[in-house]
Structure formats: structure tokens, C-alpha cells
């Protein structure tokens, strides 16, 4: 294609003769340059498209893209890519099962109503705890275990883990949670990890895997963590029933007053939609 183009330019130069040779040559040079630069730009653009289509796992904030109601969302990494690191955000298949998870940053009186509703519905959940929650609410942690729930690792200080690159610091954040949980309950912490704020890097995921942890992101969540700006019941039901889908890992916060108030009714609505509740052990067994 480039050869044909250059021959055409040369033919034009000959046709114009000597009258405007300077102008013609300059025009030809300009056109040639634009041709080659245009081709390079096209290749660069194509490369960018190909890069954008490739799952990125270098250093990300976990994010989701939603399609039609009832369909699984897409994550900013595929299920296949995440599996390399024993990481998950949604179950495969179309079975109407839900995996309930709660992030526990601190205790403000809403966790026990949530536990009451879960017990009423015989629904198992996983609670991802930080050091402050273990220190300040040990009796509630003991109840989680007694009620048959799973307790996972949300790091001790809730830092941006994507900025922690050395293994020793990463391990300390994780091991301090496991040690205090063992001290409080007399049992071992489940080897499930959720990165604070969904911030991660491939190095983090690999370190968690080497420590024996499975990493769990989510496929459904809503803005429930701001204690001073809680969503209405109507908004919560709209988000949590409108976007529910088979195999969803649901992220909620135990600090949410709204969640404490609606949990019984929410679980009832999900059951009426044909969903059952399953533990995260489904992913690792």
C-alpha cells in the first residue's frame, strides 16, 4: 500500500513539470509524512484498543460495569485472570445463590440486628474484620463464630494495600488480625482476605496467595458506609434487588443503620426472588 502511494506521488510530480517543482515537492513530502504518521497513529490507536481490552491487574481500585438487570456485572479483571491469584468476585453459572459478606471497620450498634436477621433466615455470611473491630467488639466476634458465620481478614489498620510492596509489611497487617482473632475466639481465622476499599495490586494478590489466602472482591454493593449520610430504605431495596444476579458476592457494611433496619425484609425479598444463601467455602473447596 505504501509503495503504491509513493508511486502516485511521483507521477504527480512528473505531470506538473518544472513550473511549480518546489511547491510540488514540498507538497509531496508533506503528504508522505502525513501518510506515514497516519499509519503510525493508527497502529498506536489499535494498540491502545488492544490494551484496553486486556484485563488490567497491575494496580487498581476494584470496579464493576453493570449491564441489564439480573445479569452478572463485568469486573475490571476477568474471573479467569483473578483465579490465577485465588481471587474471586462472582460465582460462575446461573444458579440463584448469593454470598453475603460484611466489612466490619468498627462497631456502632448495627451488627447485632444484622446477626439477628441472618439467624432468623438461617443465612451464613462472612464478616471481614479489622483490628479495631476485634479490639472493641470481641463479644460480637464470638457471636459470629457461635452463630456459624465465617470471619475473614480485612487487615489490621485498613491501609491502602496497593501501596504496600514489601512482603513483611503485608504479612504483618494480615497476621496481626489472625493472631488477635485466635486469642479472642480460640479458633483460627478463615483464610479469606478482602482488600480495604477494594484497592489492590498483582503483588498484593500474589502475596495473599502465598500466605494461603483467597481474595474476595464483590459483584454487588451500594453506598452504605457513610454513617452520616445513610441511604433510604427505598434506595437500598432498589439497588440491592434491582442489581441482584446469580452467584453474586454481596458487599455490605455492618456499620450501616439502614442495613440493620432492612436486613430481615431484604433477605425475605431475595428468598422470594428464588435465591438461597451459600458460604464462600464454595469457591475454595
Report on this structure.
The N terminus is likely disordered. The radius of gyration is 27 Å and the shape is globular. Strands 5, 6, 7, 11 and 12 form a five-stranded parallel beta sheet that branches. A three-stranded parallel beta sheet has the order 4-10-8. Strands 1-9 form a two-stranded antiparallel ribbon. The chain contains eleven helices and twelve strands. The chain has 285 residues and is an alpha/beta fold. The chain starts with a helix and ends with a helix.
Q: Given the C-alpha coordinates, what overall shape results?
A: globular
User: Class by helix and strand content?
Assistant: alpha/beta
Roughly what fraction of the amino acids lie in strands? 5-15%
Written as H for each helix and E for each strand, in order along the chain, the element string is HHEEEHEEHEHHEHEEHEHEHEH
Q: Cα distance, first to last residue?
A: 57 Å
What is the multimeric organization of the chains shown?
Answer: single chain
Number of helix segments? 11
Parts with pLDDT < 50 across at least 5 consecutive residues: 1-56
Mean pLDDT comes to 84
Q: What is the CA-atom radius of gyration, in angstroms? A: 27 Å
Largest sheet, if any?
5 strands, parallel
Count of strand segments: 12
Helix proportion range? 40-55%
Quick overview of this protein structure:
It contains 11 helices and 12 strands.
Task: Describe the secondary structure blueprint for this structure.
Blueprint: H1 2-16, H2 21-53, E1 59-61, E2 64-65, E3 74-75, H3 79-83, E4 87-88, E5 97-104, H4 111-120, E6 125-129, H5 131-136, H6 138-146, E7 150-153, H7 167-185, E8 192-193, E9 199-201, H8 202-210, E10 214-216, H9 233-242, E11 248-253, H10 257-272, E12 276-277, H11 281-284
Helix pairs in contact: 1-2, 4-10, 9-10
Amino acid at each position: 500500500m505504501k509503495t503504491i502511494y509513493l508511486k502516485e506521488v511521483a507521477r504527480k510530480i512528473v505531470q506538473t513539470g518544472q513550473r511549480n517543482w518546489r511547491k510540488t515537492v514540498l507538497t509531496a513530502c508533506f503528504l508522505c509524512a502525513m501518510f506515514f504518521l497516519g499509519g503510525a497513529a493508527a497502529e498506536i490507536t489499535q494498540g491502545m484498543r488492544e490494551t484496553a481490552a486486556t484485563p488490567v491487574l497491575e494496580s487498581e481500585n476494584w470496579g464493576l460495569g453493570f449491564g441489564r438487570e439480573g445479569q452478572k456485572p463485568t469486573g475490571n479483571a476477568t474471573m479467569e485472570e483473578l483465579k490465577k491469584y485465588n481471587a474471586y468476585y462472582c460465582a460462575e453459572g446461573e444458579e440463584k445463590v448469593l454470598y453475603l459478606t460484611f466489612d466490619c471497620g468498627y462497631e456502632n450498634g448495627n451488627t447485632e440486628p444484622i446477626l439477628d436477621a441472618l439467624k432468623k433466615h438461617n443465612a451464613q455470611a462472612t464478616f471481614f474484620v479489622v483490628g479495631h473491630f476485634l479490639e472493641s467488639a470481641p463479644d460480637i466476634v464470638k457471636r459470629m463464630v457461635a452463630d456459624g458465620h465465617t470471619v475473614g481478614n480485612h487487615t489490621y489498620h485498613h491501609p491502602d494495600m496497593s501501596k504496600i510492596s514489601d512482603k513483611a509489611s503485608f504479612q504483618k497487617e494480615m497476621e496481626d488480625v489472625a493472631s488477635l482473632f485466635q486469642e479472642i475466639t480460640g479458633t483460627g481465622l478463615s483464610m479469606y482476605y478482602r482488600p480495604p476499599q477494594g484497592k489492590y495490586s498483582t503483588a498484593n494478590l500474589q502475596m495473599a496467595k502465598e500466605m494461603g489466602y483467597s481474595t474476595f472482591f464483590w459483584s454487588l454493593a451500594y453506598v452504605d458506609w457513610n454513617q452520616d449520610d445513610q441511604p433510604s430504605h427505598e434506595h437500598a431495596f432498589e439497588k440491592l434487588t434491582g442489581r441482584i444476579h446469580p452467584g453474586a458476592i454481596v458487599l455490605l457494611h455492618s456499620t450501616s443503620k439502614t442495613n440493620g433496619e432492612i436486613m430481615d425484609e431484604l433477605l425475605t425479598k431475595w428468598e422470594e426472588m428464588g435465591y438461597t444463601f451459600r458460604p464462600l467455602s464454595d469457591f475454595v473447596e
